[in-house]
């Protein structure tokens, strides 16, 4: 088969890395349509995946609309020349449009209920949609399948990822103290329109509180103020999960990274206010703590509760949870091979 992977976000590189490897090992041809956003291109280069860069991130409603037109046109031209048998992406906006026009199957995985605009312009055109069992948003009627777990199992399942302490040290892990990981997002995606994250004062207060307890690491999609730059993650882009795996607590606005932390066995505080099905599911299983935005009292209470956890009980919770999940990278490959003939 000839398979086109639509890569529009750094998380897409991670999500599709193992499926791409499996498809290549099976002898299939791979095409990657990439987008310049954050560290997407850097990750593709690090993993030595060949790609065609067909669009660049734009911001704001007008910017996103302009980029969508540009990407649709560029993808249309790429697909018309390469003629893939199937296209797959996470979200899948452009592949749904181009697939409909050129009569090529387009399938997507997705997990964000609040992406109303994306749902509006994708669901009517997508061939198939895969969402977590916990997902409560709109789906493609008669064309939707549900998987067990969250998207992060595609790359952090124990079969695909083993934390390496040496790599964690290279990435900035500090010996002899508790390490705390903070993630701040940029709120520039199509599903983030109208939303705002933590302000600088809130972030400074959180850092000051955690700094008294150990080492602080910050991963931020936006530029940090001068006073916080010494905490910024400066390790290799593909080592960040090795560092996260050895941290005491994760605190952040990113639901994705909160989910990653849990899979790695790290207690996570998700401090964003959007309702997400998989976060609610993790909270019901006592695997994640939800905080009220960046309010320091709320975060302190959650950190205190985490630090008083029985270590053996926590580890048993994690093991039980992981045993219940499917190997999502295999599910992705299976979703593609359904179209082989």
Task: Break the fold down into its secondary structure elements and pairings.
Blueprint: E1 2-7, H1 10-25, E2 29-36, H2 40-46, E3 52-56, H3 60-82, E4 86-90, H4 93-102, E5 106-109, H5 116-122, E6 128-132, E7 144-147, H6 153-156, H7 165-170, E8 178-184, H8 200-211, E9 214-220, H9 240-245, E10 249-252, H10 255-263, E11 268-270, H11 277-284, E12 288-290, H12 296-307, H13 311-323, H14 328-337
Parallel strand pairs: 1-2, 1-4, 2-3, 4-5, 5-6, 6-7, 8-9, 8-10, 10-11, 11-12
Written description of the protein model:
This protein has 341 residues and is of the alpha/beta class. It has 2 domains: 2-155 and 327-337, Rossmann fold; 165-323, Rossmann fold, CATH 3.40.50.2000. Helices cover 42% and strands 18% of the residues. It has helices spanning 10-25, 40-46, 60-82, 93-102, 116-122, 153-156, 165-170, 200-211, 240-245, 255-263, 277-284, 296-307, 311-323, 328-337; strands at 2-7, 29-36, 52-56, 86-90, 106-109, 128-132, 144-147, 178-184, 214-220, 249-252, 268-270, 288-290. The termini are close together.
Summary of the model, kept short:
The protein is of the alpha/beta class. It folds into 2 domains: 2-155 and 327-337, 3-Layer(aba) Sandwich (Rossmann fold); 165-323, Rossmann fold, CATH 3.40.50.
């Amino acid at each position: 088969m000839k398979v086109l992977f639509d890569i529009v976000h750094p998380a897409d590189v991670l999500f599709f890395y193992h499926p791409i490897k499996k498809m290549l090992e099976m002898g299939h041809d791979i095409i990657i349509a990439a987008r310049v956003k954050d560290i997407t291109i850097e990750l593709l280069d690090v993993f030595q995946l060949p790609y065609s860069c067909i669009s660049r991130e734009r911001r704001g409603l007008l910017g996103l609309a302009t980029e969508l037109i540009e990407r649709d046109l560029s993808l249309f031209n790429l697909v018309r020349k390469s003629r893939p048998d199937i296209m797959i992406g996470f979200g899948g906006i452009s592949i749904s449009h181009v697939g409909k026009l050129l009569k090529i199957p387009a399938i997507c995985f997705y997990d964000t209920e609040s992406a109303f605009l994306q749902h509006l312009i994708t669901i009517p055109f997508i061939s198939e949609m895969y969402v977590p069992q916990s997902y409560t948003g709109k789906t493609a009627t008669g064309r939707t399948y549900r998987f067990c777990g969250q998207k992060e199992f595609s790359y952090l399942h124990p079969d695909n990822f083993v934390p390496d302490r040496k790599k964690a040290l290279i990435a900035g892990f500090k010996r002899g103290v508790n390490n705390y990981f903070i993630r701040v997002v940029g709120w520039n995606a199509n599903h983030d329109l109208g939303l705002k994250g933590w302000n600088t004062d809130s972030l400074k207060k959180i850092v000051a509180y955690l700094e008294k307890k150990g080492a602080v690491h910050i991963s931020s999609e936006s530029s940090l103020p001068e006073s916080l730059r010494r905490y910024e993650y400066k390790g290799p882009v593909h080592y960040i999960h090795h560092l996260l795996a050895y941290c005491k607590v994760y605190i952040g606005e990113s639901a994705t990274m909160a989910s990653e932390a849990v899979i790695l066995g790290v207690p996570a505080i998700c401090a964003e206010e959007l309702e997400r099905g998989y976060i609610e599911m993790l909270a019901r299983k006592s695997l994640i703590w939800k905080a009220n935005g960046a309010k320091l009292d709320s975060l302190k209470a959650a950190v205190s509760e985490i630090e008083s956890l029985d270590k053996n009980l926590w580890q048993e919770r994690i093991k039980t949870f992981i045993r219940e999940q499917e190997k999502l990278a295999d599910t992705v490959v299976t979703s593609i091979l359904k179209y082989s003939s």
